[in-house]
Amino acid sequence: MDNSRDSGTADVVVIGGGTGGYSTALRAAALGLDVVLVERDKIGGTCLHRGCIPSKAMLHAAELVDGFAEARERWGVKASLDAVDWSALVATRDDIVTRNHRGVEAHLAHAGVRVVRGSAHLTGQRTVRIEGAREDLAPGAPDQHALGAHNPTTGARPESAPRVRDVAARRGIVLATGSRPRTLPGLQSDGRRVVTSDDALFAPGLPGSVLVLGGGAIGVEYASFHRSMGAEVTLVEAADRIVPLEDADVSRHLTRGLRKRGIDVQAGARLLDAEVLEDGVRARVRTARGETRTVEVERLLVAVGREPVTEGLDLAAAGVGTDARGFVAPADWARLETAVPGVHVVGDLLPPPSLGLAHASFAEGLLVAETLAGVESVPVDYAAVPRVTYSSPQTAAVGLSEAEARAHGHEVDVNIMPLTAVAKGMVHGQGGMVKVVAEAGGGQVLGVHLVGPHVSEMIAESQLIVGWDAYASDVARHVHPHPTLSEAVGEAFLTLAGRGLHQQ
Ligand code: FAD
Q1: CA–CA separation, 410 vs 407, rounded Å?
Q2: N or C: more exposed end of the chain, with fewer CB within 10 A?
Q3: Domain 393-496 belongs to what topology?
Q4: Gap between the terminal Cα atoms of the chain
Q5: Which residue from 215, 311, 206, 199 is spatially nearest to 254, judged by alpha carbons?
């Protein structure tokens, strides 16, 4: 790393150190660019501190709890579950987050990315002002021996004194300020009785009953988690089915699986009002059948989507606009570049077809860094980005739903293979399915949709199938291991290719 460089300039300034921002910074630095990464809170952003990682850690614990019931009820294991110690669960979860956090910080330090703590805003097309800027000290700095080294006693990273700093970006600025939970009027979080997905992590304990408002991936995951932890759960979704962006058969199988576990799934339903009580919330829900039901719960978890974070960024100073919903839409999706040359955008700040998913933001970060470095890169193929809900049962999908494929004018062949049609599916005994949507007459595979146990780990082959424009017959040539759940994917393709073995 060049210690003599002017701290007032960089090749690239990245604003926001979440998955989108830090992946951009890492790749740009690896390509030899001098990168300043500005983060006002914690490197790792939503995914690491409030999203993917803590929620999946908790869902892993939930899976272990569910295992007790299955062991007892199906396998004659004489085990009983005494209680879940929430503080111990939180401690393990937070330890995983902390270790990941340190890992990402160490990567950035090792790559030579200059991480500046502070709040950034634009002052022009190539200039950024950082308020309250504190920079991790560079190697060789008088009071420090290594960039990114943590104080072994406190774990703290040495920093410079805070000040206002202006940085001019020679090649470009990357906007990566992400998103936050959307709230509804009158349903502001109080961190205890009305909570968002952020607050649910830091709530004092596990509730005995929850109403989850919103049947997207986040709402479904939290509904599933709380049910595993023994809560009475009502899941309310305004659309006529939960996970409404997925294939209708995914919604159907997921609804069935959640109901089987005792979750009251109310799709096509509306929250009429909610009264916050001393020790909970009384909510009135209009069901799809037009009945009004009163539900009293200890906690109302609002999971009605996420909104982009742009306030205070002063986008106008660079002439960057937002769309009607506040997202920053690129003028050129192939470079993720706004209408202002050199100002790029990644992650949750992007509108659809970007997906508000961490792995999409990684791909976007790679693309933008490579674009800024002037090396060849390929646009993100959003249709081939997998989408997963880590509930029990899980859902995982890639490509077009059956309805989308038809709406795009495709004539399609569809095959639905129950997971219980393969032996390992029976062993798990949780139902589920593989649905394949392909161009009619043995054509290209357009979408693969999975519901069931561990399907999050099974979607990777389907993402290659869809991403590589494979045909059912291409897949059917390849032998899947027996007995596995993934065998159901192989069987679904065998049938579609006219060579079905176990499927009637
Ligand atoms: P963020 O991660 O939000 O990062 C933006 C960063 O910018 C923040 O750290 C913020 O402090 C900083 N910032 C904002 N403004 C400024 C400023 N002016 N100056 C300096 N810094 C600023 N995705 C998946 O792929 N898989 C999952 O399993 C998954 N689970 C999720 C579960 C939950 C409960 C939630 C909420 C989200 C989940 N997501 C998941 C989505 C994923 O977390 C996001 O897609 C991802 O975090 C977006 O990354 P980002 O870099 O765009 O934004």
Answers
A1: 7
A2: C
A3: Enolase-like; domain 1 (3.30.390)
A4: 63
A5: 215
Decide if 449 is catalytic.
Answer: no
Give the per-residue SS3 of 65-111.
Answer: HHHHHHHHHHHCCCCCCCCCCHHHHHHHHHHHHHHHHHHHHHHHHHH
Supply the residue whose CA is at minimum distance from atom 3 of ligand 1: 178
Of 453, 414, 457, nearest to 432 (Cα)? 453
At 3-16, the pLDDT tens digits run 333 459 999 999 99
Q: Which residues contact 211 (CB under 8 A, 6 or more apart)?
A: 233, 234, 236, 281, 283, 285, 295, 297, 299, 300, 301
Give residue-wise pLDDT tens across range 401-413: 999 999 999 999 9
Establish whether domains 183-304 and 393-496 are of one fold: no
Query: Residue 87 has which token pair?
Result: 């503080």
Task: Return d(Cα 405, Cα 354) in angstroms, integer.
Answer: 19
Region 1-179+305-383: CATH code: 3.50.50.60
Instruction: Classify domain 183-304 at the CATH topology level.
Output: FAD/NAD(P)-binding domain (3.50.50)
Instruction: Please tell me the distance between residue 268's alpha carbon and the centre of ligand 1 in angstroms.
Output: 29
Task: Please give the distance, rounded to the nearest whole angstrom, from the Cα atom of residue 58 to the centre of ligand 1.
Answer: 18
Cα within 13 Å of Cα(371), Cβ side: 25
Ligand 1: residues within 6 Å at CB? 15-21, 38-41, 45-47, 50-52, 55-56, 119-120, 176-179, 197, 218, 309, 312-313, 347-349, 356-359, 361, 390
Give residue limits of the domains in the chain. Answer: 1-179+305-383, 183-304, 393-496
β-pairing, 9-15 with 35-39?
A: parallel
- Output the pTM of the full model: 0.94
